[in-house]
Amino acid sequence: MHHDADIRVAIIEDDVTIREGYAYLIGNTDGYKIAGTYASCEDALRKIAHDDPDVLLLDVELPGISGIEALPKLKKAVPDTHILILTVYEEEMLIFRALGNGAEGYLTKNTPPDKIVAAIHEVMDGGGPMSANIARMVISSFKRNDSSPLTRRETEILEQISTGKSRKRIADELYIDLETVKSHIKNIYHKLDVHSKADAIKAARENKFI
Amino acid sequence: MHHDADIRVAIIEDDVTIREGYAYLIGNTDGYKIAGTYASCEDALRKIAHDDPDVLLLDVELPGISGIEALPKLKKAVPDTHILILTVYEEEMLIFRALGNGAEGYLTKNTPPDKIVAAIHEVMDGGGPMSANIARMVISSFKRNDSSPLTRRETEILEQISTGKSRKRIADELYIDLETVKSHIKNIYHKLDVHSKADAIKAARENKFI
DNA sequence: AAAATTATCCCCTTTATTGAGGTATTTTAT
DNA sequence: ATAAAATACCTCAATAAAGGGGATAATTTT
Question: Which of these, A141, A150, A138, lies nearest to A201 by C-alpha position?
Fold first, then answer.
C-alpha cells in the first residue's frame, strides 16, 4: 500500500496510546508511511538520522529532554525534516520558543485526525500549519498597542534607540538636532515613567508601543 | 434568507468585478450578509461606522490611501470589526505591517471562495486565518539562524545589549565581571565585523542571530 | 587525553553618551 | 483659534563605549 513517493512521518510522543493512535492513523492513510516512533527525544536522537523522516510530529511535554530543548539537536540530526509541534500546551512562551527553534508548524492535540494529515501535507508543501488559536496568538504578537501614549515621533525615536543607535546618530539620520532628540527622549521617559534607556525599551516592548 | 445572527461582512476593493464577485459569493452564503462594499478607503471611512460590519475584507493595493495606511483609522472607526487582508501581495514588509496595524488574518487572492468564507468564520471565532505561504513567512520570522558564529554566552550578552542595558548592568545580572562582558563584546564585534553596538545589533537581527 | 572552544578576569587610554534640570519657538492638526 | 507636537537651545556631572594589550580557568568536542 506504500511506495517510494510516500511521505515519511516520524512521531516523538511518550504516551503509548496516543503515539500508536497517530501511527495507526497516519500509517493507514494513503500517501503516508511511518518512518519511526519514539517515546523520548533521547531515543529519537539515536535512531532518527537512520529513519530519515520527511515530517516529524513532536510533543513538547516529554520526560527527560523536553521537545523544545531537543529541537536544535533534532534539526541538526535531520536538517531537511519538517518539524510539527503537536501538543496540549498553548502558552505563548512555548509557542515562540518552538517556532524560534525551527518548528514549522504548531498544532494543539484537539486537532482532528484529518487536519493533522492535512497539516503534514501542508508543511511538506511549504506552508506553516497552525491551529486557529495558535495562529491568533502569533498574529497578536505582531500587533502594536493602538493606545500608546507616545507620539509618532517619540515612537520613531524610541524604535531607533532600541536598535542601539546613539542620540547623535539618530539626530543625523532624522535630520534633526541632537537637542531635539534629547527633548523627545526626556518626554518619552516622563510618559513611561522611567529613568533609563533600558527601562524605556522594556516598558515599550511589554506594552507593544514599539 | 438572512436574519439577525448573520455575520455582517464589508469589503474594500477597488476592482469592481472582484468586489462584486466577493459580495455575490458572501451574500449568497447562508449565515453571512454584506454590510457594505467600498471602492476606496476614503469611501469606507465615511460609511463604515454606520454599516458596522463584523468582518472587513481589505485589499492592500488601493488608489488613494492604501489599505495598510488606512488600517489604524479603520480600527478606530470600527474597533470591534475583525479585519482580514485579502491581497495578491506577499511581501514580508507588507504582511508584517498589516499584522502590526491590527489585521487579524492575511489571505492571498488565489484563495478559493469556500476558504474565504471559512476564514471569515474563523476570524470571528478567535482564529487567525492565513494562507499557507503567509503562515510560513510568519513562522520563519521567528526562526533563529542555527549557524550563528556567536557562542551561547555571546548571544545572550548581545540580546541583553539589544534591550538597552549597560555593560555594567549586564555584568551584574549575569553575575560576571564587567571585564568579562567587555571581552565578550570585543569578541562579538570581531565575529560580526562591526565597531559599535548599533551595528552589532543590526547585523545580528538581520541574520537572526538574536 | 589532547585540542579547541568558551568563559572568565585584569590593565590601560580617550572620546562619546547619557540623564536631569531648565526654556522657547515653530509647525501641524482639529 | 487653540491645542498638541515637533523643534531647538542651555548647563552640568556621571557614566558608558570602544579600542588596545594581556592571562587563565573551565568546558566541550574530537
Answer: A150
